[in-house]
């Protein structure tokens, strides 16, 4: 790829970004778009009444940037929780890393690369038609002493990244502890989930749990709630909700618009009836059915061998959590309970074996998905190598000779296609994760996040790198000894692709995140085609499973290409600067947290960064070998070992903090609440906190006045 | 190797075994050898007064076999503990495995191999001069349908081994629990070791521990004992013991034998003194010194940031053990306390970082040892390939043409040399393990056992297999894809070497175990050269670190060669039968347990067997590929996956039982002791149970009457 192709790509994307930004700053001021650009504010009732004049409303303005900039970390913490803070810390961390990296890379490494003449003689004329490779390490002469500069910069950069990693891990650990210390009593701190309750003849699971915990935890045991199989009931309630929505919709129409309908098959046969009465009748029947099912369930329902067990103190719950309860380790398996509204009810997979097998199935499914995904990746690779495309599709020859078309095709199209295909991955991975038997939305989100991250690294980085040079060389990893060498050949060759990938995929994803294209269109359709549905909307939650892997993938690109092709760094810095502002803005206006993990996303960030460092060092080992500087190659190995040791240390030092709270903190919190009068109230509520929402009474048909309330699930917290 | 060479080897070893057995059955009846062949009985005072006549004493008799055979598992459990039972269960398990394997191997696979004609035409004449390879799978024709018999037998054998593994794991788990339920209150159930106690200004570690545990575990906390740095003191006490021994020796001599000595430099200068008085004086000085040091230590000694913390109940200790105590996970690190007499005091490595670094150092040291050990292995390999030896040392040509010499050299010498070198490994590995910061002899023993096992597998199995065919092919393992194929070529080629290895190393080690050559010689020297020392002897403890790896290594050989060269199986069966009888005899007469891990050696056995199965299956995959039966090769892969899943299941189902006791069992035991009057006594003793023996008062000089007692370390349990 030549310099001018890169410039074309940058130009297109810069144009797109500016367009989106301008459109955003206009559209967000239209009151009709409040549901799209400020759903959080609308839900909180803080949607500012637009005081500006009509002309002001039509002019772009950068006020939102200032507001986003001024937002402090304490505000984010108090309004959107610790997870949002972690999200922002990823940006801050990356900005710090790539500022240091950028200074070294652009001021030192880039000139060193450029004055090499491995690829072409030094010649400052005709820059636009030169290959981007002259800015990469490939241009440094073999055996050149200048490679020691690269060697030193790798050491310095690794040192800086490790220091920053340590600092951030420490910072977020302390935030997590502070968050816990300042929290009010919360049901999930007092509750554990017990699975694989052994069946005993003539006794319900509830009785078993009751007698087990009163025997072994008499001082702290409070209550239990056995989980029921409510799949059928959930279906019925869903139907009732749908009917209720349709009914609302019908009622909102003018009565003269209402047509009579037939009550028979498909509304084609039977006698004519008023549809409102008809649906009302149906809804009442359905609700009756639901109530019957509910009472059936609570009397003799199909119990699942799992129960939420609540304790009188946090420490009591922690004791039951951490000590193996029964002599048989696969019975009475305990687990931290999630927040009540975070419980994932639909697929409450229970038995030990079931969960184990579904785990295995998911692993196989992930591998299959990865293999299937190679198809678009290979297609994209043929686009970057135009010669191949011409041999496949000879009739395109004429078009491809036009400079602009070929530049668009090599510079823009490949990453766009990849981007579109990548959009389908997070939802699929989410389905996989929810099949694994996780019991909360947050666990599913964390697991999805990990899956998407590794999928992205494998399918975007490795598949591109290895298929770009030697097609389908997946079995490189079956010969670990040769990995550094193979990567050293393949990775620098893809530098220009990834530079454009940052520009197209990264910048575009940010501006579309800001612009919210799909919600905007969706909102438009809803408002203009189906009137009454408009006032009932969901405030979106932060899509960690898409965002974190993307941000981390760019970090991986930045770290691996830091010394190979430092030209990537300025584009990454732009990405992180934009991202920093845009996500602050979105946290302020758009997203509401659906759960709080207390910063459990950070270990993913840490691990991924360490992986990037190791990858970078492995490539360095290979590159120095290829460049005939075996001394530097061997001297990089200690760095790799040191990095692994650093990781090991951090795992020991910080990871346990994210797994569970310590006795010290739990007891301190318990003592704090000991003389609190509100604790009795809290414990009363705790008893029913983990009731399955499908078992809560429903009432749509009669309760016509306040028709919004029953749609919200009403847990006591 | 030809059949007659094998027969030579079998002959020699059988002769040796019979010789050792005969000598044993004679020597054990000599009263003077009681310390060698029945030290356990002597120590227990049960040494039977030999009633048999002089002639009977000189005739070999098989009475000991009958007694060993009649010993029941309950007796072993009550006299030598659960670990000895586990040792015997390894033999029982192996006997079962190889009985099944032997039936399939000898009756089905061996004939199938023999009628193949890949290596030579079927010809029943001249059997002694045929290569052993005609009994191995190498002789089956390529692409032969008969290989499906091997395929089926692999499936059946894996099934049988997995069933037996499951059965044994379950059996030993239940034994472990039963052992715990039937145990009396023991200090290590009530105590934990706390390490990395944070230093706080102006406070001793003892105060820190006291205030921490009284604050966070007020109901259950009993007492603490901070560990002191007693290296200097231990040295002094050792010197005092030595002096005391010398003094005893001098006193036991006739007084007219005693010469006067000079009290100056090296006993050459100064005035003449009576040596008894001289040493007495010296000993008194030394004891005074020790007492001074002890009182110094207890007042202002150098404290180590580690303490034994005792609790009033087992459950209380378990709670403190399992829950992370402090917000900083590398402070207040808790660990199960070992039995008081099992604590390993000399190297009480303490800080988190120190232990971590010494772990790393030990890993590096193990790798170095492995590399160094390749030298003798390569030498041994040149012996099995006589041609190579002839080219290296041409002057041997004349000798090597003598049939018997060459048979001895190929059949016997290699394994003997290996055996001698292997003897040095367990002590070295024990030193490594004790450097890793383990705090008890039992942990060191378990860790040594693992190290020796993997060392044996690597250096005997892999180094022989891979250097025998392609010298120094260690980097086979850096190309995982090719492992099955490479192993399939190399492993069958070494079949005859390992058959002789079983006969020489296995049978010889058993008979020398029975005969106790070295203790016998040692005892002889002691008795005849240094009179008085004889009555003071140590009862040996079971050398798990040597025995378990050896038994497991033979199991690995049996499992991997089960379908390759079933001829190995009868020799193994003989080994396990002999071993079964001999170890029962030794447990009855010789060994006394020094510690009790409660069966923690079994997981090592389980893991090693699973590894053997996986190895066997990997070789099968390669062999079927080489033998042009790719279908069978692919169909073996599911078996490998199933075996791994089985292992995973067992890890989940049984391993936690060996890590810690459950809440259920702990609370049951606590309740049992609740109304026990002796508990008060027990708790009183518990407070001082973990006193460093170096801090106990010593008294050698005055206490002349009962001079045996102070030599035994006197902990209250």
From TrEMBL, chains A, B:
Entry keyword annotation includes Calcium: no
GO molecular function annotation: calcium-activated cation channel activity
Keyword Transmembrane helix: yes
Stretches of the chain forming a coiled coil according to its record: 276-303
Principal location: membrane
Residue span, CSC1/OSCA1-like cytosolic domain: 189-346
UniProt-recorded name of the protein: CSC1-like protein HYP1
Organism annotation: Nelumbo nucifera (Sacred lotus)
């Amino acid at each position: 790829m030549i310099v001018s192709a890169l410039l074309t790509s940058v130009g297109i994307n810069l144009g797109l970004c500016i367009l989106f930004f301008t459109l955003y700053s206009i559209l967000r001021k239209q009151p009709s778009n409040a549901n799209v650009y400020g759903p959080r504010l609308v839900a909180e009732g803080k949607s500012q009444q637009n005081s500006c004049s009509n002309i002001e409303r039509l002019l772009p303005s950068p006020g939102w940037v200032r507001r986003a900039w001024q937002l402090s970390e304490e505000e984010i913490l108090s309004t959107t929780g610790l997870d949002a803070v972690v999200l922002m810390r990823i940006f801050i961390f990356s900005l710090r890393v790539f500022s240091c990296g950028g200074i070294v890379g652009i001021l030192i490494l880039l000139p060193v690369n450029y004055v090499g003449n491995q690829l072409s003689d030094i010649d400052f004329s005709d820059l636009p038609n030169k290959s981007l490779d002259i800015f990469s390490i490939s241009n440094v002469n073999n055996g050149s002493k200048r490679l020691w500069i690269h060697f030193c910069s790798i050491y310095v950069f690794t040192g800086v990244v490790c220091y920053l990693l340590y600092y951030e891990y420490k910072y977020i650990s302390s935030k997590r502890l502070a968050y816990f210390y300042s929290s009010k009593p919360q049901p999930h701190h007092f509750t554990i989930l017990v699975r694989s309750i052994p069946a005993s003849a003539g006794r319900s699971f509830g009785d078993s749990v009751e007698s087990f915990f009163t025997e072994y935890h008499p001082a702290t045991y409070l209550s239990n709630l056995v989980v029921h199989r409510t799949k059928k009931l959930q279906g019925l309630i869903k139907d009732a909700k749908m009917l209720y929505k349709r009914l609302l919709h019908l009622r909102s129409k003018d009565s003269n618009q209402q047509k009579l309908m037939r009550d028979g098959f498909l509304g084609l046969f039977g006698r004519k009836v008023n549809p409102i009465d008809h649906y009302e009748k149906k809804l009442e029947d359905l609700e009756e059915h639901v109530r019957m099912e509910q009472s059936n369930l609570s009397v003799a329902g199909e119990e699942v061998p799992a129960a939420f067990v609540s304790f009188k103190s946090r420490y009591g719950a922690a004791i039951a959590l951490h000590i193996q309860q029964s002599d048989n380790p696969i019975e009475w398996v305990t687990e931290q309970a999630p927040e009540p509204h975070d419980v994932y009810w639909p697929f409450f997979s229970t038995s030990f074996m079931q969960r184990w097998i579904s785990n295995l199935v998911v692993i196989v499914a992930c591998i299959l998905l990865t293999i299937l995904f190679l198809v678009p990746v290979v297609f994209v690779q043929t686009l970057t190598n135009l010669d191949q495309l011409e041999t496949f599709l000879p009739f395109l020859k004429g078009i491809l000779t036009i400079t602009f078309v070929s530049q668009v095709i090599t510079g823009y199209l490949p990453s766009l296609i990849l981007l579109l295909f990548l959009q389908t991955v997070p939802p699929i991975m989410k389905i996989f994760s929810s099949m694994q038997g996780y019991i909360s939305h947050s666990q599913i989100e964390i697991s999805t996040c990990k899956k998407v991250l590794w999928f992205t690294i494998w399918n975007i980085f490795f598949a591109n790198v290895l298929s770009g040079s030697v097609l389908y060389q997946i079995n490189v990893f079956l010969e670990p000894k040769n990995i550094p060498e193979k990567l050293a050949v393949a990775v620098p060759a893809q530098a220009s692709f990834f530079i454009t990938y940052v520009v197209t995929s990264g910048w575009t994803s940010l501006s579309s995140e800001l612009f919210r294209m799909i919600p905007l269109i969706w909102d438009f359709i809803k408002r203009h085609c189906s009137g009454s549905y408009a006032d009932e909307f969901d405030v979106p939650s932060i899509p960690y499973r898409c965002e974190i892997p993307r941000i981390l993938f760019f970090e991986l690109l930045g770290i691996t290409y830091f010394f190979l092709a430092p030209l990537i760094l300025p584009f990454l810095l732009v990405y992180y600067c934009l991202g920093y502002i845009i996500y602050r803005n979105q946290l302020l206006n758009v997203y509401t947290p659906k759960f709080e993990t207390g910063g459990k996303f950070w270990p993913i960030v840490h691990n991924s960064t360490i992986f990037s460092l190791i990858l970078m060092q492995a490539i360095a080992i290979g590159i120095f070998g290829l460049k005939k500087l075996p001394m530097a190659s061997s001297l990089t190995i200690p760095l790799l070992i040191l990095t692994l040791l650093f990781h090991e240390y951090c795992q020991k030092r910080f990871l346990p903090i994210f797994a569970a709270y310590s006795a010290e903190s739990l007891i301190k919190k318990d003592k704090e609440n000991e003389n609190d009068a509100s604790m009795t109230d809290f414990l009363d509520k705790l008893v029913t906190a983990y009731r399955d929402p499908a078992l809560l009474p429903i009432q749509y048909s009669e309760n016509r006045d306040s028709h919004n309330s029953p749609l919200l699930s009403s847990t006591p917290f």
